[in-house]
């Protein structure tokens, strides 16, 4: 059961990371807050010269770290529905981002060096990430739902 939940968490984290990545790319293409570029921050923190490294780190964090941690914490998170649990979880992930990698990258606590919109924009992106991750995590395979209904039919 633990391995199944771990895998579900990674799949949910991967799906949410894809959505988050698409939003980040759209934000950059629209020219919104170009100084807020988490991929560039991760690339620089890794001492790499190519954004590929930043993207790999970004996907590892979103898929492996947050996905498996969400699966582990899911039974204890408040919220009832999985998408709401994902939102609650994402607030914690956002706080950790604001107090660890942001200061390490030179952006300051809660991105203070980037302006007031940095924490707001990253919070919104994290809330979307969490809702998607929780929603995908809560999806049941169709055969599981069918088996459940079949086993609870009145005869």
Q: What's the gist of this structure?
A:
This protein is an all-alpha fold and 155 residues long. Helices cover 72% and strands 0% of the residues.
Core attributes:
single chain
Describe this structure in words.
The longest helix has 28 residues. The mean pLDDT is 88. It contains seven helices and no strands. It is mainly alpha-helical. Helix 1 packs antiparallel against helix 6, helix 2 crosses helix 3 and helix 4 runs antiparallel to helix 6. The protein has one domain.
Overall mean pLDDT: 88
Determine the fraction of residues in helical runs and give it as a percent range. Answer: over 70%
Given the structure, what is the number of helices?
Answer: 7
Strand content: under 5%
Radius of gyration: 18 Å
Domains, number:
1
Q: Span between N and C termini?
A: 30 Å
Shape: globular
Low-confidence regions: none
Number of strands: 0
Order of helices and strands: HHHHHHH
* Secondary-structure class: mainly alpha
Largest sheet: none
